[in-house]
Specification:
With about 240 residues, the chain is α/β, with parallel strands linked by helices. The protein contains 8 helices and 7 strands, in the order E-H-E-E-H-E-H-E-H-H-E-H-H-H-E. Helix 1 packs across helix 8, helix 2 runs parallel beside helix 3 and helix 3 runs parallel beside helix 5.
Length: about 240
Amino acid sequence: MSNDRVALVTGGNRGIGRAIAERLLRDGYRVAVTARSGEGPEGTLTVRADVTDSASLDAAFTEVEQELGPVTIVVANAGITKDTLLLRMTEDDFDSVIATNLGGTFRVVKRATKGLVRAKWGRVILISSVVGLYGSAGQINYSSSKAALVGFARSLTRELGGRGVTANVVAPGFIETDMTAALPEETQAQYKSSIPAGRFATTDEVAGVVSWLASDDAAYVSGAVIPVDGGLGMGH
């Protein structure tokens, strides 16, 4: 059933994006990933794109459409951090994170929208973060960009909800990646003590939620924020 559906995952060459691409591939979709460098998982089509550049995204989409068909599942995952306290944060630290995390989502989803409307079916899945609503010292740029995705998905739901298109937000907490593995053990233990589940998530656990949102089972779920954070952000 899902084999004719094409999914595009931005930033699909590593971390959460890669796990999502692998899972959607297993689910039977045709999967493309955008990457600035590196390759997506075996079996996916990797296209070069910079989400801050709409011309490069347009070319990437065109390549995917020619090779695999029209994109109807969009997973906006590409993101960057430039962490520092507000007093030390430069305008570039702020602007570049917003341009990638929020502007990149805008450019990707805008490019996909005509195809979703034409297909009268679509899934837009935005990868946010627990800090989008919970906040995090030293991450005013990042948490602002991630909080904004909630308003984005809810406005898109109001625009396209009647056309078979859903738009949802997944908000991961601490995930086992190279980044968290590099943290000192004391810091890791400190973080884990604040998480009711007492552990970090695997990237596969985030991918599983994305898989469900992309499926027909989630056809009546839109404008939702689904935390995958072991209970860290409850009520936020």
